[in-house]
Structure formats: C-alpha cells, structure tokens
C-alpha cells in the first residue's frame, strides 16, 4: 500500500491511501478466474487456486525448524503405511548365551564387527520357537477363525444393540452398515493370509468354480464355524445384562424375547417359506457373483486394497435390500454359531427345530445353492477363464467326471482294485 498526503476542502491535511495493483507471484501464471469483470483482482474461489503456489512446499524461515532439510532415518509407526520391521533387543544376535558361545568358538571378538544389528537366526528346524512351528501349519485356518470372529462380533453386537434398546441405540440401517464394515475390517485383517472367505458358501463356490482345493475348503468351513461360535460367545457375554433386562421387562424367556431375533435369523411370521428361501438364495447369488467379478482381472478389477472396502459396502447393501424378510443371514456360519451358543446358554434345543428347521434349508441350503448359482451365472455370461467348469471342453468335462468317479470308488473300496480304466479311451466313446 502506498500513502500520500492530501489537502481537503477545509484545508485539513489528510492521509490518502492509494490501492496498489495486484501483482501475481513471480514464476507463476495466474489463470483467468471465473469471476468475469474483476480484472487483475485475486480469485476467492473455495476450490483453491488453479496453479500450485511455489512457496507452499517450503518453510518461510527454515532456521526456526531444527529438522529442516534432514532426512528421517528413524522408523515410523504410522497407520497410513506399512509398519516398520525392526530388531528388538531380545532378538538381536548376542542377546542369548548361545550366541556369545558361538562367537567365542569362531574366535570372533564380540566388540569388533558386532552382529547386534542382525536378528538371531532360527532353530535347526527353521522356526524361532514352538508356537512359530505350530502357526506355520495352521496359519490359514487360524486367520479364517480370527477374521470370522472379528466380523461377526461387530455385526452381532450392533444387532443386539439395536434390538435390546428398542431402536434407541441403533436402527436396521446402522446394523446393516455394521455387518458390512465388520467384514471389511476382517478381510483387511486376514485377507493377505487366508483370502478372507469368512463364509462357507464363498469357500464352496470358489472350490467349484475357481479350483480352490476341496479339502482346504472343508478346513476353512470348520474354522469359520468355530469363529462364529467364538463371536456368538463374545456377543452374548457383552450384552448378557441387556438380554436379561429385556426378557424381564417383557416377562418372557430369553429365547422368546426380541434378543432372539438379533441373535439368530428366522423368517418373519407372515413370510411364506418359498419367499424366505429365495430371499436368501438371491442375496447370496448377488454377493458371490459380485465377488467373482471383483476377482476377475479380465473384467474391471478395482485398485489395490479396494476389494475389502467394496465388499463391505456390498454386504451392507445386500443386508439392507434383502434382510427384512429373514433377518439377513447370507452366511451359514452367521446363523449356526450364535444359535449353538444360545442353546449352550440354556435357551433350549428347540431353537434347531423352529420354523421347520430353518437353519438347515435357509442359511445352509439357500445360501450355498444361491452362491453356486451366482457364480455359475457370472461365469456363463462374462468369465472366460479355463478354471471354471462352465468353460470346460466336453472332452475335459467328461474326463474330469470319470476321474472323480474312479477316485471315489477307490476311497470307498467299491469294485475290483486291480481293474484299470483307460480314461482317454472312455472319453472318446
């Protein structure tokens, strides 16, 4: 701003301020703003300047920042990036007497060329301790158990919170979102180890249409059921007081209170059994069909790390759209685990008989058949990979059927053991 003197009409000297013309910073070209008619005045757009400020990436006074210009060499335990791998004191070479004994035997001076920045090597069997060896053999099932426990604990607790509070601490929308994002967190937690199936129907569909080993699929299903039982126990323990209070106010047993609707799934009394079956069938078909699409690199796969987020949103949408009629199961383990926990808590064995054994023809038959149907429709319409039986040549399909038949007979001990079958010749017939 420039100031200059002036004389008013009454002879009084006044300071006048002459506005200085706006000058853009050196090295930049200020683009024309959307405010027409403002000339060289700066733009006050809330979207920010169109060109980058050349001074935005540097300090005005670097001397006031002691770390200015220095490289950060220390590990950073940031949640926005992979955590660092460090060597803790107990794992450094020389922390154990065996390490020092080895140095003496090799004639190495422990003070010269120290190995303390190197981790202690594993044992002779290749493992650091006994648990490392056990975990090596059960790592994938353990991850499935942990992921299922995390996902279903979050979902069950959100559902119990809604029902036991009569909607004061939640709603159907909030519990649907909790189910979806609970599975998202679980997939992010364990997906890199086991794949994060967390659903028997998904494991079976991947076994049939993507070549996932059938034996491994059975192990996964057992781990998922165990995780669902664990989650049911956690949820019941956390909301036990609320369940008891709700049942006492209604003067009914716990198995007949509103908490039972949250803990286990069942069709509404006015819903026809066929409607209930196809509700679960269609929801599972859409879920698994979308999973096949997300895993198809020949289609339009999402960016790295986005699968779990998209699946979380997808599960929330499926529960919102199809969850009213049946409670929104779409997962065999989601119903079986809490139902078994409820029976163990004394709610009565009749829970496995209600609605004509709904737990069998609903969460198991409808969900598994729906998952297989969804994968089949996607492969028939879009997928072109050779791992799907839909794309098998007739000769290969026939041969695969005969191989399965022969292997099954050998396992069951049916037929003569010395009989050999020329599979290729049979395929040509």
Automatic annotation (TrEMBL):
Name the membrane topology term: Multi-pass membrane protein
Pfam families noted in UniProt: MIP
Q: Which UniProt keywords apply?
A: Membrane, Repeat, Transmembrane, Transmembrane helix, Transport
Source species, domain of life: Eukaryota
SUPFAM superfamilies, alphabetically? Aquaporin-like
Q: Name one GO cellular component term.
A: plasma membrane
Region: Disordered, residue numbers: 1-127
- Which one of the record's GO molecular function terms can you name? water channel activity
Q: Which portions of the chain have biased composition (kind: Polar residues)?
A: 38-76
Q: What is its main location?
A: membrane
Question: What residue spans carry the Basic and acidic residues bias annotation?
Answer: 11-23, 95-106
Membrane-crossing ranges are 142-161, 181-206, 218-239, 274-294, 306-324
Q: Where in the cell is it found?
A: Membrane
The family classification in the record reads: Belongs to the MIP/aquaporin (TC 1.A.8) family.
Protein name according to UniProt:
Aquaporin-like protein
| Organism from which the protein derives | Penicillium atrosanguineum
Taxonomically, what lineage is the organism? Eukaryota, Fungi, Dikarya, Ascomycota, Pezizomycotina
């Amino acid at each position: 701003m420039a100031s200059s003197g002036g004389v008013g009409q009454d002879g009084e000297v006044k300071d006048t301020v002459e506005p200085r013309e706006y000058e853009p910073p050196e090295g930049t070209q200020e683009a024309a703003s959307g405010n027409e008619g403002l000339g060289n005045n700066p733009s006050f757009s809330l979207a920010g300047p169109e060109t980058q400020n050349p001074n935005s990436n540097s300090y005005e006074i670097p001397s006031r920042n002691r770390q200015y210009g220095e490289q950060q060499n220390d590990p950073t335990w940031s949640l926005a990036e992979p955590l660092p791998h460090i060597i803790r004191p107990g794992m450094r070479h020389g922390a154990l007497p065996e390490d020092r004994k080895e140095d003496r035997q090799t004639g190495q001076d422990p003070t010269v060329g120290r190995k303390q920045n190197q981790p202690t090597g594993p044992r002779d069997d290749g493992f650091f301790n006994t648990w490392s060896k056990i975990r090596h053999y059960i790592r994938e099932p353990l991850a499935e158990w942990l992921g299922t426990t995390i996902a279903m604990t979050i979902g069950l607790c959100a559902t119990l919170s809604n029902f036991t509070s009569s909607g004061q601490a939640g709603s159907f929308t909030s519990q649907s979102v909790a189910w979806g994002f609970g599975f998202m967190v679980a997939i992010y937690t364990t997906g890199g180890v086991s794949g994060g199936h967390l659903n028997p129907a998904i494991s079976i569909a991947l076994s049939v249409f993507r070549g996932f080993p059938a034996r491994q699929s059975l192990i996964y299903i057992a781990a998922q059921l165990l995780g669902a039982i664990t989650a049911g126990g956690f949820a019941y323990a956390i909301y036990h007081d609320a369940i008891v209070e709700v049942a006492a106010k209604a003067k009914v047993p716990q198995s007949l209170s509103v908490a039972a609707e949250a803990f286990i799934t069942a069709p509404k009394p006015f819903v026809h059994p066929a409607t209930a079956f196809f509700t679960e069938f269609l929801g599972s078909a859409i879920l698994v069909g979308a999973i096949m699409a997300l895993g198809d690199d020949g289609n339009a796969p999402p960016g790295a790390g986005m699968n779990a987020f998209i699946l979380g949103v997808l599960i929330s949408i499926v529960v919102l759209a199809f969850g009213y009629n049946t409670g929104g199961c779409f997962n065999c383990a989601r119903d079986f685990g809490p139902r078994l926990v409820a029976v163990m808590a004394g709610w009565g064995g009749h829970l496995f008989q209600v609605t004509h054994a709904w737990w069998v023809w609903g969460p198991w038959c409808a969900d598994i058949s729906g998952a297989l149907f969804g994968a089949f429709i996607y492969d028939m319409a879009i997928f072109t990979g050779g791992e799907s039986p839909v794309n098998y040549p007739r000769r290969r399909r026939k041969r695969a059927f005969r191989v399965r038949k022969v292997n099954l007979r050998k396992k069951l001990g049916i037929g003569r053991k010395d009989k050999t079958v020329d599979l290729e010749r049979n395929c040509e017939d």
